[in-house]
């Protein structure tokens, strides 16, 4: 029986979410629209199978076909990224990074050096609240005053702290990463370099962002961001990594299974294989190029409206707006924009003095709207709407006390949902998104 008959409540919610995704501008930089082919592979009988182990070395029978699926995914990843080893089983990015640490670090002894969460690193790059920060020693680095990576400071810190893993690759950094310099720093202190390219993987494949493969030892990417696949992740080992540690691939595989996970999600593996195939060739290259063009066009228009952009702009898929100069809190702005049909996320900015739940900025990006075919012309319109929407809430006085903030946000949400000007923008957004159907 189909879903709408078996479970009308869930079926209805899915339909509503589909409508929401269609009508708004999805501008959270880690989000995208997976293709129909990817979703088709996800919703198949492959979800029924258990296949602990790796191709041709399984603990369960009946895996001949699953082996072929996983081998295809592995081979496509190796070919696309030009690496000698790929593990396609991690359930998502956080388990994948955790598996790398589990493979290589002694708990409570060895150090992970990653960009601080407050400066655009990920939770799993050593944040104290995450398993990466609780089970391992951590050495956080920060950005320079200009919002850019400060390689001299990173080198100095690495030399004094001697981490075993250095992580580069970020969730809220709008500029290119000098993987070569990171590789030199890691080599100089005998550390592994883990490049977490989750956000920018599509840009690397498209050739519009530097390639970490010659410089990193291990590369981790999620598969659902600029790669446009299903939720999931891939851990790759480079030639360089194998030279540094000939057992690196084996250690990573063992850490994923049986170290951290049980059976891989075979439907997810098949969908990853589909996404990797779709990322080969010219159309995907053009997609990556357009993401960056859109991001830069948007950044330049936002600059024109007086927004203060962290790192002074963007050369990837994302923009981090520091709203302190506008006197608007990030959580307030994010809600106002949502009412206006523009979906972004509140985000800390470098040297933020506000807590993560009420940060001073918003993060937005172009991967999903570029998938819909929008170009520079549309970015100008979007920048204008963002500016108008934030102007609507610029006189909201944000309380300093925690309790008062909770109360304020409740009232604010109700007020803002009735704001006529925001609703007018949402209608204009709907008119625009109508012209750019989700492929
Ligand atoms: N949650 C992702 C992001 O939004 O950047 C990272 O895992």
Name the beta content range.
Answer: 5-15%
What overall geometry do the principal axes of the alpha carbons give? globular
Indicate the CATH topology of the largest domain.
Answer: Aspartate Aminotransferase, domain 2
Structural class: alpha/beta
Q: How are the strands of the largest sheet arranged? A: 4-10-9-8-7-5-6
Averaged pLDDT:
97
What is the C-level CATH assignment of the largest domain?
Answer: Alpha Beta
Largest sheet features: 7 strands, mixed
Enzyme class: transferase
Pfam family, one: SHMT
Subunit structure: Homodimer.
InterPro entries: PyrdxlP-dep_Trfase, PyrdxlP-dep_Trfase_major, PyrdxlP-dep_Trfase_small, Ser_HO-MeTrfase, Ser_HO-MeTrfase-like, Ser_HO-MeTrfase_PLP_BS, SHMT-like_dom
Write the layout of secondary structure elements.
Blueprint: H1 3-6, H2 8-23, E1 25-26, H3 36-42, E2 53-54, E3 57-58, H4 64-81, E4 85-87, H5 93-104, E5 111-115, H6 131-135, E6 137-141, H7 151-161, E7 165-168, H8 179-188, E8 192-196, H9 201-205, E9 218-222, E10 233-237, H10 239-244, H11 248-260, H12 266-278, H13 282-304, E11 308-309, E12 318-322, H14 330-339, E13 342-343, E14 345-347, E15 361-365, H15 367-371, H16 376-392, H17 402-417, H18 420-435
Parallel strand pairs: 1-13, 5-6, 5-7, 7-8, 8-9
Antiparallel strand pairs: 2-3, 4-10, 9-10, 11-12, 12-15, 14-15
Residues 30, 93, 122, 171 line the site of D-serine.
Notes on the structure:
- GO terms for molecular function: glycine hydroxymethyltransferase activity; methyltransferase activity; pyridoxal phosphate binding.
- This is Serine hydroxymethyltransferase.
- The record marks 224 as: Plays an important role in substrate specificity.
- One of its GO terms (cellular component) is cytosol.
- It is an enzyme of class 2 (transferase).
- The chain is α/β, with parallel strands linked by helices and 439 residues long.
- The chain folds into two domains: 52-278, Type I PLP-dependent aspartate aminotransferase-like (Major domain) (Aspartate Aminotransferase, domain 2, 3-Layer(aba) Sandwich); 282-435, Alpha-Beta Complex (Aspartate Aminotransferase, domain 1).
- The protein contains 18 helices and 15 strands.
- It has helices spanning 3-6, 8-23, 36-42, 64-81, 93-104, 131-135, 151-161, 179-188, 201-205, 239-244, 248-260, 266-278, 282-304, 330-339, 367-371, 376-392, 402-417, 420-435, and strands spanning 25-26, 53-54, 57-58, 85-87, 111-115, 137-141, 165-168, 192-196, 218-222, 233-237, 308-309, 318-322, 342-343, 345-347, 361-365.
- The strands form four sheets. It has a seven-stranded mixed beta sheet, sandwiched between helices.
- Helix 9 links the parallel strand 8 (192-196) and strand 9 (218-222).
- Helix 5 crosses helix 11 (248-260), helix 13 runs parallel beside helix 16 and helix 14 runs parallel beside helix 17.
- The protein is globular, with a radius of gyration of 22 Å.
- The two termini are 27 Å apart.
- Bound molecules: D-serine (DSN).
- Residues 30, 93, 122, 171 line the site of D-serine (DSN).
């Amino acid at each position: 029986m189909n879903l709408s008959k078996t479970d009308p409540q869930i079926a209805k919610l899915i339909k509503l979410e589909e409508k929401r995704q269609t009508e708004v501008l999805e501008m959270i930089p880690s989000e995208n629209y997976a293709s129909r082919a990817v979703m088709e592979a996800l919703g198949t009988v492959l979800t029924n199978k258990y296949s602990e182990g790796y191709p041709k070395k399984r603990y369960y029978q009946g895996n001949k076909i699953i082996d072929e699926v996983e081998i295809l995914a592995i081979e496509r990843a190796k070919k696309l990224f030009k690496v000698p080893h790929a593990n396609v089983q991690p359930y998502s990015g956080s388990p994948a990074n955790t598996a790398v640490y589990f493979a290589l670090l002694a708990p409570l002894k060895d150090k992970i050096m990653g960009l601080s969460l407050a400066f655009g690193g990920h939770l799993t790059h050593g944040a104290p609240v995450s398993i990466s920060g609780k089970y391992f020693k951590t050495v956080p680095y920060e950005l320079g005053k200009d919002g850019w990576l400060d390689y001299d400071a990173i080198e100095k810190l690495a030399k004094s702290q001697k981490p075993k893993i250095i992580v580069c690759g970020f969730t809220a950094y709008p500029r290119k990463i000098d993987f070569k310099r990171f590789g030199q720093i890691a080599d100089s202190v005998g550390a592994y370099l883990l490049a977490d390219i989750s956000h920018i993987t599509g840009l690397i494949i498209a050739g519009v962002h530097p390639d970490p493969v010659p410089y990193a030892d291990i590369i981790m990417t999620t598969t659902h961001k600029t790669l446009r696949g299903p939720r999931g992740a891939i851990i790759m080992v480079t030639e360089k990594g194998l030279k540094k540690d000939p057992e690196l691939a084996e250690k990573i595989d063992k850490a994923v299974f049986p170290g951290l996970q049980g059976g891989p999600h075979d439907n997810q593996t098949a969908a990853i294989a589909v996404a990797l195939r779709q990322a080969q060739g010219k159309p995907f290259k053009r997609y990556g190029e357009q993401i960056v063009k859109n991001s830069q066009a948007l950044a330049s228009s936002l600059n024109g409206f007086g927004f203060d952009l962290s790192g002074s702009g963007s050369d990837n898929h994302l923009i981090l707006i520091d709203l302190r100069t506008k006197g608007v809190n990030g959580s307030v702005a994010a809600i106002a924009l949502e009412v206006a049909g523009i979906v972004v996320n509140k985000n800390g900015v470098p040297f933020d003095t506000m807590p993560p739940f009420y940060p001073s900025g918003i993060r937005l990006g172009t991967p999903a709207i570029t998938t819909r075919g929008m170009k520079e012309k549309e970015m100008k319109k979007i920048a204008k709407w963002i500016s108008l929407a934030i102007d609507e809430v610029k006189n909201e006085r944000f309380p300093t006390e925690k309790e008062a903030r909770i109360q304020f946000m409740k009232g604010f949400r109700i007020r803002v949902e009735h704001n006529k000007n925001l609703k007018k923008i949402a209608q204009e957004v709907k008119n625009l998104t109508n012209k750019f159907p989700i492929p």
